[in-house]
Sequence to fold (241 residues):
Amino acid sequence: MTIVYRLKNVVKERLIDGVGFRLMVPDIQISAKENIALIGHSGCGKSTLLDILALISKPDSLDQMSLHPVDGDSHDVAKLWEQDKQSMLSQIRKQHIGYVLQSGGLLPYLTVRENIELPRKLLNLPDDDSIKSISRVLGIDRQLDKLPGLLSAGERQRASFARALSHRPSILIADEPTAALDPITAQKIMAVVMEVIRGLNITLITASHDWAGVYKMELRTLKQESEVIEDGNVYQSRFCD
Fold:
């Protein structure tokens, strides 16, 4: 089984109102085609870890971080951060990673079609039937010429998934993508998304506080453990199997 991510002793710190927060990842491996869920309470560092995995946020220290997309070259991410290779990190992110934000993140002045096409245009990929195909599967093919503001919350999130998947990334990262939806709509959307990513052999990494929903989808979980250290001034959060 191909290892897509390997993280060892990755640390990210920040200071909020005089109280320190430290995210620690002692040792995590994520294999190709795995479906992973980060679970934990609000504020425990799930989004921070997703940003690190998406090559958006630079760790403060790390022993190892590597990325091995199934359809591309292997990358020593730790070395790229050390050498400040921002352009290379950006290119890897654009080519191999799709990211769905909790808010959806659709650009309001672009139509749904234009939003979904955006990742492909940034990569100079040719026009094909990808947009039409994935929009049909996700049930938004009749909404393509509308602006996002005219869609329901569920339709906007489906469009966000379509945009993240339009360039056929190796990895899909989703930050609590159904948190703003009612449980029935959330379940329907995730069922369709799971079907799509399995068909495309995509690795899914999502964050959720909905433990019951995660277990229903049979995702492998990375659980959060927390403690207060250093005289109560540092809140430390760890993610591990």
Notes: Residues 3-240 form a domain with the Rossmann fold fold (CATH 3.40.50.300).
